[in-house]
Specification:
This protein has 279 residues and is of the alpha+beta class. The protein has 2 domains: 1-18 and 208-279, no CATH class; 49-205, YaeB-like fold. Helices cover 39% and strands 15% of the residues. It has 10 helices and 7 strands. It has helices spanning 5-17, 25-33, 36-47, 62-65, 70-86, 106-112, 121-126, 174-188, 209-225, 232-239, and strands at 57-60, 129-132, 143-149, 153-161, 252-257, 260-265, 270-275. The strands form 2 sheets. The protein has a 4-stranded mixed β-sheet with strand order 1-4-3-2, with helices on both faces. It has a 3-stranded antiparallel β-sheet with strand order 5-6-7. Helix 1 (5-17) runs parallel beside helix 3. The longest helix has 17 residues, at 70-86.
Length: 279
Protein backbone atom coordinates (compact mmCIF):
# COMPACT_ATOMS: atom_id res chain seq x y z
CA UNK A 1 0.00 0.00 0.00
CA UNK A 2 1.47 3.32 -1.12
CA UNK A 3 1.65 5.94 1.60
CA UNK A 4 -1.03 8.59 1.19
CA UNK A 5 -0.64 12.18 2.30
CA UNK A 6 -2.64 11.44 5.46
CA UNK A 7 -0.51 8.41 6.30
CA UNK A 8 2.74 10.32 5.76
CA UNK A 9 1.49 13.07 8.05
CA UNK A 10 0.34 10.51 10.60
CA UNK A 11 3.69 8.70 10.62
CA UNK A 12 5.57 11.89 11.38
CA UNK A 13 3.54 12.68 14.51
CA UNK A 14 4.59 9.73 16.73
CA UNK A 15 8.20 10.35 15.71
CA UNK A 16 7.91 13.93 16.96
CA UNK A 17 6.38 12.81 20.26
CA UNK A 18 8.29 9.60 21.05
CA UNK A 19 11.77 10.00 22.58
CA UNK A 20 14.58 8.06 20.98
CA UNK A 21 18.08 7.17 22.05
CA UNK A 22 20.60 8.17 20.91
CA UNK A 23 18.78 11.45 20.32
CA UNK A 24 20.29 12.12 16.90
CA UNK A 25 19.14 13.16 13.44
CA UNK A 26 20.26 9.76 12.15
CA UNK A 27 17.85 7.89 14.43
CA UNK A 28 15.02 10.23 13.45
CA UNK A 29 15.76 9.63 9.77
CA UNK A 30 15.80 5.87 10.35
CA UNK A 31 12.32 6.05 11.90
CA UNK A 32 11.00 8.17 9.03
CA UNK A 33 12.19 5.53 6.57
CA UNK A 34 10.36 2.74 8.39
CA UNK A 35 6.89 1.53 7.42
CA UNK A 36 4.00 3.09 9.34
CA UNK A 37 3.24 -0.22 11.06
CA UNK A 38 6.81 -0.33 12.41
CA UNK A 39 6.61 3.26 13.67
CA UNK A 40 3.25 2.52 15.30
CA UNK A 41 4.70 -0.57 16.96
CA UNK A 42 7.54 1.38 18.55
CA UNK A 43 5.22 4.22 19.53
CA UNK A 44 2.58 1.94 21.10
CA UNK A 45 5.29 0.10 23.01
CA UNK A 46 6.64 3.36 24.38
CA UNK A 47 3.18 4.80 25.08
CA UNK A 48 2.27 1.67 27.06
CA UNK A 49 4.87 2.77 29.63
CA UNK A 50 2.87 5.94 30.24
CA UNK A 51 -0.47 6.10 32.04
CA UNK A 52 -3.07 7.96 29.96
CA UNK A 53 -4.82 10.75 31.84
CA UNK A 54 -8.28 9.66 33.00
CA UNK A 55 -9.93 8.91 36.37
CA UNK A 56 -9.55 5.35 37.61
CA UNK A 57 -11.10 3.29 40.38
CA UNK A 58 -8.43 2.48 42.97
CA UNK A 59 -8.06 -0.80 44.84
CA UNK A 60 -5.36 -1.66 47.37
CA UNK A 61 -3.84 -5.11 47.69
CA UNK A 62 -3.00 -6.59 51.12
CA UNK A 63 0.69 -6.85 50.14
CA UNK A 64 0.77 -3.06 50.39
CA UNK A 65 -1.05 -2.76 53.71
CA UNK A 66 1.01 -5.51 55.33
CA UNK A 67 4.35 -3.97 54.37
CA UNK A 68 6.39 -2.79 57.37
CA UNK A 69 6.96 0.50 55.49
CA UNK A 70 3.25 1.23 55.11
CA UNK A 71 2.98 3.49 58.16
CA UNK A 72 5.95 5.55 56.96
CA UNK A 73 4.72 6.00 53.40
CA UNK A 74 0.93 5.80 53.79
CA UNK A 75 0.37 9.54 53.37
CA UNK A 76 2.52 9.66 50.23
CA UNK A 77 0.77 6.64 48.74
CA UNK A 78 -2.70 7.99 49.50
CA UNK A 79 -1.82 11.33 47.92
CA UNK A 80 -0.67 9.51 44.79
CA UNK A 81 -3.87 7.44 44.76
CA UNK A 82 -5.91 10.62 45.13
CA UNK A 83 -4.34 11.85 41.90
CA UNK A 84 -5.23 8.54 40.26
CA UNK A 85 -8.88 8.82 41.28
CA UNK A 86 -9.10 12.41 40.04
CA UNK A 87 -7.50 11.52 36.73
CA UNK A 88 -4.48 13.78 37.14
CA UNK A 89 -1.36 13.43 35.00
CA UNK A 90 0.97 10.87 36.62
CA UNK A 91 3.88 11.25 34.19
CA UNK A 92 6.19 12.94 36.70
CA UNK A 93 5.76 9.96 39.05
CA UNK A 94 7.19 7.64 36.37
CA UNK A 95 10.83 6.86 35.75
CA UNK A 96 12.77 9.56 33.93
CA UNK A 97 13.85 6.88 31.45
CA UNK A 98 10.31 6.77 30.07
CA UNK A 99 10.79 10.25 28.66
CA UNK A 100 14.31 9.69 27.30
CA UNK A 101 14.49 6.12 25.98
CA UNK A 102 11.39 5.47 23.91
CA UNK A 103 13.08 3.86 20.91
CA UNK A 104 16.61 2.58 20.40
CA UNK A 105 17.88 1.22 17.05
CA UNK A 106 18.54 -2.50 16.93
CA UNK A 107 22.20 -2.04 15.98
CA UNK A 108 22.79 0.13 19.05
CA UNK A 109 21.10 -2.44 21.31
CA UNK A 110 23.23 -5.26 19.88
CA UNK A 111 26.40 -3.20 20.30
CA UNK A 112 25.59 -2.53 23.97
CA UNK A 113 24.41 -6.08 24.60
CA UNK A 114 21.34 -4.91 26.52
CA UNK A 115 17.98 -5.82 24.99
CA UNK A 116 16.15 -3.87 27.70
CA UNK A 117 17.69 -0.49 26.90
CA UNK A 118 14.41 0.92 25.60
CA UNK A 119 12.03 -1.34 27.51
CA UNK A 120 10.58 -1.70 31.00
CA UNK A 121 11.35 -5.32 31.78
CA UNK A 122 8.97 -5.68 34.73
CA UNK A 123 6.12 -4.00 32.88
CA UNK A 124 6.58 -6.20 29.82
CA UNK A 125 7.03 -9.47 31.72
CA UNK A 126 4.98 -8.92 34.90
CA UNK A 127 2.50 -6.19 33.99
CA UNK A 128 3.64 -3.80 36.73
CA UNK A 129 3.89 -0.05 36.26
CA UNK A 130 6.11 1.45 38.93
CA UNK A 131 5.52 4.95 40.24
CA UNK A 132 7.70 7.09 42.46
CA UNK A 133 5.90 8.50 45.46
CA UNK A 134 7.22 11.99 44.77
CA UNK A 135 6.77 13.76 41.44
CA UNK A 136 9.50 15.63 39.58
CA UNK A 137 12.70 15.05 37.65
CA UNK A 138 14.81 14.50 40.78
CA UNK A 139 14.45 13.59 44.46
CA UNK A 140 11.71 11.11 43.70
CA UNK A 141 12.65 8.94 46.65
CA UNK A 142 14.03 5.43 46.95
CA UNK A 143 10.69 3.63 47.33
CA UNK A 144 8.34 2.91 44.42
CA UNK A 145 4.74 1.76 44.21
CA UNK A 146 4.04 -1.15 41.89
CA UNK A 147 0.60 -1.13 40.30
CA UNK A 148 -1.43 -2.91 37.66
CA UNK A 149 -3.25 -0.38 35.52
CA UNK A 150 -6.10 -0.78 33.06
CA UNK A 151 -8.28 1.73 31.27
CA UNK A 152 -10.52 2.35 34.27
CA UNK A 153 -8.84 0.61 37.22
CA UNK A 154 -5.66 1.09 39.24
CA UNK A 155 -4.62 -1.76 41.53
CA UNK A 156 -1.99 -0.59 44.04
CA UNK A 157 0.00 -3.76 44.67
CA UNK A 158 3.09 -3.25 46.83
CA UNK A 159 6.02 -1.05 47.82
CA UNK A 160 9.60 -1.87 46.83
CA UNK A 161 12.96 -0.19 47.07
CA UNK A 162 15.09 0.13 43.94
CA UNK A 163 16.84 -3.19 44.55
CA UNK A 164 13.73 -4.76 42.97
CA UNK A 165 15.31 -3.85 39.63
CA UNK A 166 18.62 -5.57 40.45
CA UNK A 167 19.45 -8.77 38.62
CA UNK A 168 23.23 -8.77 38.74
CA UNK A 169 24.98 -12.02 37.81
CA UNK A 170 21.52 -13.55 37.30
CA UNK A 171 20.85 -13.42 41.03
CA UNK A 172 17.67 -11.89 42.38
CA UNK A 173 17.67 -9.38 45.19
CA UNK A 174 15.34 -10.06 48.12
CA UNK A 175 12.94 -7.39 46.89
CA UNK A 176 12.92 -8.88 43.39
CA UNK A 177 12.13 -12.34 44.77
CA UNK A 178 9.25 -10.85 46.77
CA UNK A 179 7.94 -9.07 43.68
CA UNK A 180 8.16 -12.30 41.70
CA UNK A 181 6.19 -14.20 44.35
CA UNK A 182 3.50 -11.50 44.49
CA UNK A 183 3.20 -11.55 40.71
CA UNK A 184 2.77 -15.33 40.68
CA UNK A 185 0.18 -15.15 43.44
CA UNK A 186 -1.88 -12.49 41.66
CA UNK A 187 -1.77 -14.40 38.37
CA UNK A 188 -2.73 -17.75 39.92
CA UNK A 189 -5.17 -16.85 42.69
CA UNK A 190 -8.29 -17.13 40.51
CA UNK A 191 -7.16 -20.26 38.67
CA UNK A 192 -7.99 -23.84 39.66
CA UNK A 193 -5.19 -25.68 41.52
CA UNK A 194 -2.35 -27.04 39.36
CA UNK A 195 -3.32 -24.86 36.39
CA UNK A 196 -0.69 -23.87 33.86
CA UNK A 197 -0.67 -20.23 32.78
CA UNK A 198 1.38 -17.74 30.79
CA UNK A 199 0.95 -14.31 32.31
CA UNK A 200 2.68 -11.81 30.01
CA UNK A 201 4.19 -13.43 26.90
CA UNK A 202 6.89 -11.47 25.09
CA UNK A 203 8.71 -11.78 21.78
CA UNK A 204 12.39 -12.69 21.51
CA UNK A 205 13.14 -8.95 21.36
CA UNK A 206 11.44 -8.42 24.73
CA UNK A 207 8.34 -6.67 23.37
CA UNK A 208 4.90 -7.74 24.63
CA UNK A 209 2.95 -9.91 22.20
CA UNK A 210 -0.19 -7.85 22.77
CA UNK A 211 1.57 -4.74 21.41
CA UNK A 212 2.41 -6.68 18.27
CA UNK A 213 -1.23 -7.79 17.91
CA UNK A 214 -2.49 -4.26 18.57
CA UNK A 215 -0.22 -2.86 15.86
CA UNK A 216 -1.53 -5.35 13.28
CA UNK A 217 -5.12 -4.51 14.20
CA UNK A 218 -4.52 -0.75 14.01
CA UNK A 219 -2.77 -1.05 10.65
CA UNK A 220 -5.67 -3.12 9.32
CA UNK A 221 -8.13 -0.38 10.35
CA UNK A 222 -6.03 2.32 8.68
CA UNK A 223 -5.60 0.33 5.46
CA UNK A 224 -9.37 -0.24 5.25
CA UNK A 225 -10.40 3.36 5.93
CA UNK A 226 -7.65 5.72 4.77
CA UNK A 227 -8.75 5.85 1.12
CA UNK A 228 -12.19 7.10 2.22
CA UNK A 229 -10.97 9.95 4.39
CA UNK A 230 -11.17 12.66 1.73
CA UNK A 231 -14.69 11.90 0.55
CA UNK A 232 -17.79 13.89 1.44
CA UNK A 233 -19.77 10.70 2.00
CA UNK A 234 -17.29 9.51 4.61
CA UNK A 235 -17.42 12.83 6.46
CA UNK A 236 -21.22 12.73 6.53
CA UNK A 237 -21.08 9.20 7.89
CA UNK A 238 -18.69 10.26 10.64
CA UNK A 239 -20.86 13.19 11.72
CA UNK A 240 -24.13 11.23 11.67
CA UNK A 241 -25.53 11.40 15.19
CA UNK A 242 -22.82 13.82 16.28
CA UNK A 243 -23.87 16.85 18.33
CA UNK A 244 -21.39 19.02 16.40
CA UNK A 245 -22.33 20.31 12.96
CA UNK A 246 -20.10 19.09 10.16
CA UNK A 247 -17.90 21.82 8.63
CA UNK A 248 -18.40 22.71 4.99
CA UNK A 249 -14.96 21.37 4.20
CA UNK A 250 -14.03 18.87 6.94
CA UNK A 251 -10.41 17.88 7.35
CA UNK A 252 -9.44 14.63 9.04
CA UNK A 253 -6.10 13.41 10.27
CA UNK A 254 -5.13 10.12 11.89
CA UNK A 255 -4.26 10.40 15.56
CA UNK A 256 -2.97 8.17 18.33
CA UNK A 257 -4.26 9.65 21.57
CA UNK A 258 -2.60 7.62 24.27
CA UNK A 259 -3.24 4.13 22.93
CA UNK A 260 -6.49 5.06 21.17
CA UNK A 261 -6.57 5.14 17.37
CA UNK A 262 -8.93 7.48 15.56
CA UNK A 263 -9.48 10.34 13.18
CA UNK A 264 -9.39 13.92 14.40
CA UNK A 265 -11.50 16.43 12.51
CA UNK A 266 -9.25 19.43 12.90
CA UNK A 267 -11.84 22.21 12.52
CA UNK A 268 -14.22 20.93 15.20
CA UNK A 269 -11.66 18.96 17.29
CA UNK A 270 -13.98 15.95 17.21
CA UNK A 271 -12.03 12.74 17.73
CA UNK A 272 -13.66 9.70 16.14
CA UNK A 273 -12.21 6.63 17.84
CA UNK A 274 -11.92 3.41 15.86
CA UNK A 275 -9.99 1.36 18.39
CA UNK A 276 -9.59 1.93 22.12
CA UNK A 277 -6.36 0.96 23.84
CA UNK A 278 -6.27 -1.18 26.95
CA UNK A 279 -4.90 1.70 29.07
Amino acid sequence: MEESKTIRAFKSEPIKIMPYFPNTKEVQTELLEQHLSSVMFHYLHWASRLIPVRPRVVSIEPYLLQDSRWSEYENDVRELLRKVELGEDLTEHLSNKVLTKGYTPKDYILAKGDAWTDKDQLLNTKGFHHLHLHAGKSKKGSVVLFAQVSRDKFMAVALFDHSVFDYDNHEMSEERRRMWAISDHIAARELPPNSVYMSYPITTSGHPLHINSMTHEYWHVISQIDHKVGSREFAEEMFTGCSTQMPKKPKFKWLLYGLDLGLLETKTSNFFVFRRGYL
